Amino acid sequence: MSSTEAILLFAAGIITGMVNTIAGSGTIFSLGAMVFLGIPIEIANTTNRLGVLFQNIAGALSYRRYESLSHLRLPYVAAAATFAGALVGAYFAANVSSGTFELLALVVILGLIMQSVLEIRGTALSFSLRFSQKSPVAEIATFFLIGLYGGFIQIGVGILLLLGIRAFFQLSWNASNYFKLLIVLIYTVPTTIYFAMVGMIEWQAGTFLALGQIIGAYGAARLFSLNYRLKAYIPFFVLGMLILTALRILLY
Q1: 16: containing domain
Q2: Which residue of 6, 129, 226, 239 lies most exposed, with the fewest beta carbons within 10 A?
Q3: What is the CA angle 105-53-115, rounded to 5?
């Protein structure tokens, strides 16, 4: 790996860590950087988990330090359901064919492009369910499916978790973000170990990304606690990277 490639991956990791910590879909930056460097997208998808693991540790610790969240209790049922779903999703990610994964990834990216455009235009659908009586079955099913998606392809799972957490538990944005980081961290530990065991992590690329993501996650949690308006600029950066990555997949 050349020094230029290492710097690109490190920078992509910083951006990924910042965007994932503040909102979600930041994984498109690390995934896109690896795809542009010629790493097969299915390997880029699994290599991503190394950075996500360390990024979420840094982000959660930073949120806990700079925000008054230590009194909140993790929603254990939701976390367990997400964990179970992620294990199933990781198995499929490791066993699906390269062509099939590329097609599925492209569909996901195109969907996220549409979502980003709607968000920028201010016409994105608002998911603001409020349950008068919580349904354990609905909670387990919802978070299991989110985990299934997250274990299979990480892109955008943070947004899904934020929506699910806010819908079921009516928490503030910062509290929801904090629990999002913890839940992703919980299922990323075993899925990263699994991908490493089956030889689906590109360690050099993953290490440079992880270093950047740690810095980005820690810095973002601190900056966002001081300036909440930063979130408004994220969809523009995400949209640009989504389009570039989609074009790279189509032309690869």
Answers
A1: 3-251
A2: 226
A3: 35
Closest to 216 measured CA to CA, from 15, 7, 5: 15
Q: Which of 182, 75, 175, 53 is nearest to 134 (CA)?
A: 75
Enter the DSSP assignment of 129.
-
Read off the amino acid at residue 127: F
Q: Which two tokens stand for residue 217?
A: 């996650």
- How far, in Å, CA of 1 to CA of 67, rounded? 39
Cβ distance 19 to 237 under 8 Å?
Answer: yes
Rounded Cα distance between 152 and 46, Å, is 9
The pTM of the full predicted model, rounded to 2 decimals, is 0.81
Gap between the terminal Cα atoms of the chain: 20
Position 218 scores a pLDDT of 76
Based on the structure, what is the number of domains in the chain?
Answer: 1
CA dihedral 251, 202, 17, 29 (to 10 degrees): 0
Measuring CA to CA, how many Å separate 38 from each of 32, 65, 245?
10, 38, 12
- Give one DSSP letter per residue of 129-144, joined into a string: ---SS--HHHHHHHHH
AA letter at 148: L
Measured CA to CA, the distance from residue 203 to residue 233 in angstroms comes to 31
Angle at 69 between CA 68 and CA 74, to 5 degrees: 175
